[in-house]
Specification:
This is Polysaccharide pyruvyl transferase family protein. There is one protein chain. The protein has about 375 residues and is α/β, with parallel strands linked by helices. The chain has two domains: about 190 residues, no CATH class; about 170 residues, Rossmann fold (3-Layer(aba) Sandwich), CATH 3.40.50. Helices cover about 40% and strands about 10% of the residues. The chain is built from 16 helices and twelve strands. The strands form two sheets. It has a six-stranded parallel β-sheet. A six-stranded parallel β-sheet has the order 9-8-7-10-11-12, with helices on both faces. Helix 2 packs across helix 12 and helix 6 runs antiparallel to helix 15. The longest helix has 21 residues. The chain is globular.
């Protein structure tokens, strides 16, 4: 069975020559998607062809036999994917396997309303399974419960995020633990979203951390933040620039903010380049789960600040260190970080082996051949 990525590419090689808006749309309006797609590509042997969901169904067979859907937090009232159903129903000669489906909810929210159009979309995908085995991998137990509520859990399995398996290091937890030092010289921040105003004080404290010892502020979304990360703060209209400044560094003047962004902010359109860049830091912290996962995969201690059900579910499923944003609304200091980083390397490695087995079995049951190193992780 020849798999292909039915979704975004793992890197945008032409990004250096593209306007930011064009490159940004090619990664689904969040550069964190690169980490997810890169992981799937690696786990299936690398070099997979890719095509987007709006591709003519009759052309899909030219890409391969199994379309591996790169999914996201599409279970929730915010996403009605019914507009895709007519197109997906026309897929005849290609099987579908979905990876990464998750539910989106506020903290402590137990129930999620999913539009009927999205539920039908899930059914259409499940009907095109390569085998009788489950063909949708969800992020964790919370997402499974949402599918159970709608009678759709039989063809799903909870695997966590494939970014957990980017590294071939079977003792990755020990590698991370040995790298940890309470001194934390250089700190990189996985930047938030300037419209998350309820997290503004927390985000500003992280910006202050990134300035100590020559750190970095890595922007994933929205467009304005990615532009700042590409050195294009001067292209923003004054209102957008001031909104970003008020969120990240309200104590700075406009001139200071421009100078700061040129020195500390960055964005990536290649997951491999992002991974390589993170190796130079001592600690990574922020609200973006994929930025945290990439750091962990190259052995860098990292802490996720969870602010919704999606990030909480992923951290709990994958034994990733986290704290709740609601407990740190007024900010986090450098002195607090060592005590907040509660990391058990043995538990992390044990869970990672367990999840690798589940993920490898999921691929195998769908007639997909996993990269040899995943079998090594799974023991």
């Amino acid at each position: 069975m020849r798999p292909f990525l039915f979704g975004f590419q793992p890197s945008i090689d032409t990004a250096p020559f593209l306007p930011t808006e064009s490159a940004y749309h090619q990664v689904g309006d969040n550069t964190g998607n690169l980490a997810f797609c890169y992981a799937i590509d690696r786990l299936l042997g690398e070099g997979l062809a890719s095509t987007l969901w709006h591709t003519n169904p009759e052309r899909l067979k030219t890409f391969g036999d199994v379309g591996v859907l790169t999914l996201a937090n599409q279970l929730g009232p915010h996403a009605n994917l019914g507009y895709l159903n007519n197109s997906f129903r026309k897929i005849k000669d290609v099987s579908l396997v979905g990876i990464g489906l998750g539910a989106q909810a506020a903290p402590n929210q137990d129930r999620v309303e999913v539009p009927e159009g999205t539920l039908e979309w899930v059914r259409v995908i499940q009907e095109r399974s390569p085998t009788s085995a489950p063909n949708i991998a969800v992020r964790g137990d919370f997402s499974m419960r949402v599918l159970e509520h709608y009678g759709l859990a039989e063809k799903a399995v909870a695997t966590g995020c494939p970014t957990l398996f980017i590294s071939p290091d079977r003792s990755l937890g020990q590698t991370i633990y040995q790298r940890f030092s309470p001194k934390m010289g250089r700190i990189a921040v996985t930047a938030g979203h300037q419209r998350w105003t309820h997290l503004a004080q927390l985000e500003a404290s992280l910006v202050a951390l990134s300035q100590c010892g020559g750190g970095a502020y890595i922007c994933q979304s929205p467009l304005e933040m990615v532009q700042i990360g590409r050195g294009e703060v001067h292209l923003l209209d004054p209102q957008s620039r001031d909104q970003c400044r008020a969120y990240t560094a309200p104590w700075m003047s406009n001139e200071e903010f421009i100078n700061w962004s040129q020195r500390y902010a960055c964005s990536f359109f290649s997951a491999a380049a992002w991974l390589e860049y993170l190796r130079r830091f001592d600690f990574v912290v922020g609200t973006r789960i994929h930025g945290v996962m990439l750091a962990l995969q190259v052995g860098i201690p990292a802490l996720c600040i969870v602010h919704d059900s999606r990030t909480t579910e992923l951290c709990e499923t994958m034994a990733v260190p986290y704290v709740k944003a609601q407990d740190h609304r007024l900010g986090i200091t450098r002195d607090q970080l060592p005590s907040l980083f509660k990391f058990d390397p043995d538990a992390f490695d044990k869970n990672r082996v367990k999840r690798a087995r589940i993920f490898a079995d999921f691929l195998r049951s769908n007639e997909l051949v996993a990269a040899p190193y995943l079998s090594g992780l799974a023991g």
